TrEMBL record:
Origin organism lineage: Bacteria, Bacillati, Actinomycetota, Actinomycetes, Micrococcales
Protein name, per record: GMP synthase [glutamine-hydrolyzing]
Enzyme Commission code: 6.3.5.2
Species of the source: Glutamicibacter creatinolyticus
Active site: C89 (nucleophile), H177, E179
Pathways involved: Purine metabolism; GMP biosynthesis; GMP from XMP (L-Gln route): step 1/1
InterPro entries: Class_I_gatase-like (IPR029062), GATASE (IPR017926), GMP_synth_C (IPR001674), GMP_synth_GATase (IPR004739), GMP_synthase (IPR022955), GMPS_ATP_PPase_dom (IPR025777), NAD/GMP_synthase (IPR022310), Rossmann-like_a/b/a_fold (IPR014729)
Binding site for ATP: S231, G232, G233, V234, D235, S236, A237
Pfam families: GATase, GMP_synt_C, NAD_synthase
The protein's assembly and partners: Homodimer.
Gene: guaA
Signal peptide location: none
CC per GO annotation: cytosol
Alphabetical UniProt keywords: ATP-binding, Glutamine amidotransferase, GMP biosynthesis, Ligase, Nucleotide-binding, Purine biosynthesis
Catalytic activity as recorded in UniProt: XMP + L-glutamine + ATP + H2O = GMP + L-glutamate + AMP + diphosphate + 2 H(+)
Amino acid sequence: MTTAPLTTEHKPVLVVDYGAQYAQLIARRVREARVYSEIVPHTMPLDQMLAKEPAAIILSGGPSSVYAENAPGVDPKLFDAGVPVLGICYGFQAMANALGGTVAETGLREYGRTETEFSGGPRSVLAGAHTPPTVWMSHGDSVTAAPEGFEVLASTAGAPVAAIADDERKLFGVQWHPEVKHCEFGQNVLENFLYDGAGLQAEWTAGSIADEQIERIRAQVGDGKAICGLSGGVDSAVAAALVQRAIGDNLTCVFVNHGLLREGEAEQVEKDFVAATGAKLYIADERERFLSALDGVTDPETKRKIIGREFIRAFEAAEKAIVEAEAEAGEPVKFLVQGTLYPDIVESGGGEGTANIKSHHNVGGLPEDLQFELVEPLRTLFKDEVRAVGRELGLPEEIVGRQPFPGPGLGIRIIGAVNEERLSILRKADAIAREELTNAGLDDEVWQMPVVLLADVRSVGVQGDGRTYGHPIVLRPVSSEDAMTADWSRLPYDLLARISNRITNQVDGVNRVVLDVTSKPPGTIEWE
Ligand SMILES: Nc1ncnc2c1ncn2[C@@H]1O[C@H](COP(=O)(O)OP(=O)(O)OP(=O)(O)O)[C@@H](O)[C@H]1O
Ligand SMILES: O=c1[nH]c(=O)c2[nH+]cn([C@@H]3O[C@H](COP(=O)(O)O)[C@@H](O)[C@H]3O)c2[nH]1
Ligand SMILES: NC(=O)CC[C@H](N)C(=O)O
Ligand SMILES: [Mg+2]
């Protein structure tokens, strides 16, 4: 079920991942050009790629060297398939190599900002560049001779063949990384490729996504009944709003209080979402179910799997109650709507060829014996796209602008076993941190700020002239575009001081507050 195809009418631009740090970014930049894109692993056979009817293909960068043993290659038949191709960095080298050009380790490495020179004038994928762009490089190998039929568009001190084009066959390559934000003219190179090279239109807009998904939901659900896991977060609110548009009253939203919520969360769902949409809401008090299932469990993946399973058990119980409560004790509910996003799938290893970083409760954490058919209208989208769809549907800013909060909640922010006492400590610390962040007016600048309790760590403190032996609280404020990569937020020191002060004064059991200054990668946003 987690390998169900991504669902959209748009023919994808496939980003073939050669192990790049930036494959995700390339896909995002293509979508910023309002063209639909998907990432596929380089191990996918060519006929499978072509079966996806790609509108164009972008070969990503990667750590390998084309002349190394077992270097990932590219099937030369790709270049005869009539699909426009853009090679980037390693992808460019692999393409040049496959088509009879030469690639060598020249000893001239280039990392970071690099000046280019035009070798003919600003044309093809460089059309519109007034001056040769200062680009962003990261390579040790270079294409030393372009394959036959290609024109060299640009060169740099370390890369004699830095950009090539065969406009006739619609094959293009750049040694640099146009997807990186500080690469001058980068987005233009991608758009030149997409619009002029591949002849695509900028059609992937929030409005078109919403219309298309509403149609799809109607086709999938018909006049059947659905329940939607509603968390108060952005994704499920947008998913629910789409489904409500599609099937109206046949949708009931189910909010599960699993006991791992933050202060005030349950109340907020009723207040904001129901007020904005008028949707039917069923509140399931399942605190006992989750806390007893989690009793004594410390391993993060085990916690996630348990929470994923109990969510489904809670939805099943809710479904029974909802059906029984109906006047004519109607038919059972067949569909379960979830606000699953593309990054949830990629990170859970459900994307094709990607590693399992952590099992998101709604993807890798689902039990085998799931009785519902899933409806996941946001499976192909990144968070900022979901927000745009939400705005398109007229959801209020309090919902679409909200910071994400993971479904497993405080359960994965207590490092160690989860119990009532620890939850109560964390809830208090979290409420203080959130309140101070809001008062400082920084909610919009910070993507989210997990507050983590190191429940199995204790340190010595001195409070009220006495010795304490308490737990540390970790603040993890991050900035991000899509949660796939993140940087730690440089919060003002006086704000950090206020949070630290209040937490250590007001939360019993905590005598130390620390700041997590790790980007993602290498750290993930949540600690478990
Ligand atoms: N407490 C809950 N009750 C019911 N469903 C939930 C709950 N928490 C999470 N879910 C379901 O799991 C999905 C994934 O959770 P996730 O936290 O990624 O999304 P979200 O809460 O909708 O949005 P956000 O990322 O902004 O928090 C939700 O879209 C929702 O369908
Ligand atoms: O609904 C969710 N279920 C989960 O199991 C889950 N795990 C992480 N997250 C959220 O996903 C984003 C990326 O988090 P990580 O860097 O920790 O993987 C961050 O926004 C996290 O809060 C989850 N959301
Ligand atoms: N970033 C990349 O794609 C690097 C490609 C190749 N490994 C090189 O060093 O040239
Ligand atoms: Mg959430």
